[in-house]
Amino acid sequence: MRSFAKLFTVAAAAGCVGLLTAAAPAPVAPVALDHHEEGASKNIVETAQAAGSFKTLLTAAKEAGLAEALSAKDANLTVFAPTDEAFAKLPEGALEGLLKDKEALKSVLLYHVVKGKVKAEDVVGLDGQKVETLSGKKVNVKVKDGVVMLNKSKVVKADVMASNGVIHVIDTVLMPPKGKAKDAK
Known about the structure:
The protein has one domain: Roll (FAS1 domain), CATH 2.30.180.10. Helices cover about 30% and strands about 20% of the residues. The protein is built from eight helices and eight strands; from the N terminus they run αβαααβαααβαβββββ. Helix 1 crosses helix 3 and helix 1 (about 1-15) crosses helix 7 (about 100-110).
């Protein structure tokens, strides 16, 4: 779990800030970069690299030494991955601040990961529930008109399969709630 935490620290550094913003509902389209779900040959990092829209996240992961954890054969993780555009939405200086505060960065990145391979069909069944992330804090799951929201972040692509987990692409960096509360607001 420590390696996984390190990996998500990188994601936070890439701009994981801000709760989701509601947008016009759009269907969540499952995307598989490797055509055979169970036979996906690329790990989470390789899959994100192939997608080309997670450069900020991957760069942060490498700098934090977390890429190895996301590449682990036995990782079995679900990553709610903010795109480069999601990181660009962060307030000026936010990413730099996270990179300087490794504990805050770690907390933000772990808030984007859950243990196990949770596919879109499973996430839809969690409507109205709070799901615990690797940070120990919970994220709210809401489904409306086929659109999955995590707090206020929209899942824009679901079920991007990797050999060691699954990626759900989100449009906004998730920020964990402050304090000891485990539930997102």
